[in-house]
Amino acid sequence: MHYSTERILVTHAGSLPRPPDLRAAVVAKTAGEPYDSAALDRRLADAVAEVVRQQIAAGIDIVNDGELSKFNFTDYVRGRIAGYEPRPSSGRRRLSIIARDERKFADYFAVNTRAQTLGPPTMPVCVERLRYVGQAELKKDLDNFTAALEGVSPIGAYLPANTPGTIEHWIANEYYERPTDFPG
């Protein structure tokens, strides 16, 4: 934990905007479309370094990688946590806290929902013990972030991560007997 007695330290939560070419590659990967894996890895490393520099230039004290490699929480969980399966959803959409933003920033949401709208809508259902399987993707994130921090001196740095405690709000449970057994 970082403290200051002189001022309030600044950080942020949430994804930072991706450059359009990176956004297109991340969406293609998420949607299962063809993409150049090596080119995506190189572009991601460059973009993470740039977003760290931008945060520092903007006065952010405690920086992160901007969550540039993660399309969204659902995709992040799909690639890094095992123990659930996608099942067809009712097709009904829950009330959305981003509905106004979807109208105001329609172009952004059109690009960023492409991967979510391929095929029938699904809902994740926990069907066995949840376990972490994203070690290779985590290593890439850590390597990119470590390289991005070389030569800069933020007060602090962290790599955002989604946890089972977060996903329990939108993943159905058919495995754990009691809600308190759900990891997180």
What is the number of E strands? Answer: 5
Helix segment tally: 7
Helix/strand structural class = alpha/beta
Distance between the termini: 21 Å
Largest sheet: 3 strands, mixed
Poorly predicted parts: none
Q: Bin the strand percentage.
A: 5-15%
In percent, how helical is the residue content? 25-40%
- Using only C-alpha atoms, the radius of gyration works out to 18 Å
Instruction: Give the strand order, joined by hyphens, for the main sheet.
Output: 2-3-5
Overall residue-averaged pLDDT value? 84
Helix-strand sequence: HHEHEHHEHEHE
Shape: globular
Write out key terms for the chains shown.
single chain, 184 residues, alpha/beta, 3-stranded mixed sheet, two-stranded parallel sheet, 7 helices, 5 strands
Summarize the structure.
The chain has 184 residues and is of the alpha/beta class.
List the helices and strands and how they pair.
Elements: H1 20-31, H2 37-57, E1 62-63, H3 73-80, E2 81-88, H4 99-104, H5 106-112, E3 122-132, H6 135-149, E4 156-157, H7 164-167, E5 172-173
Parallel strand pairs: 1-4, 3-5
Antiparallel strand pairs: 2-3
Helix pairs in contact: 1-2, 2-6
Question: How would you describe what is shown here?
Answer:
- The chain has 184 residues and is an alpha/beta fold.
- Helices cover 40% and strands 14% of the residues.
- It has helices at residues 20-31, 37-57, 73-80, 99-104, 106-112, 135-149, 164-167; strands at residues 62-63, 81-88, 122-132, 156-157, 172-173.
- The strands form two sheets. Strands 2-3-5 form a three-stranded mixed sheet. Strands 1-4 form a two-stranded parallel sheet.
- Helix 1 crosses helix 2 and helix 2 (37-57) packs across helix 6.
- The longest helix is centred in the first third of the chain and has 21 residues, at 37-57.
- It is globular.
- The model has no long low-confidence stretch (mean pLDDT 84).
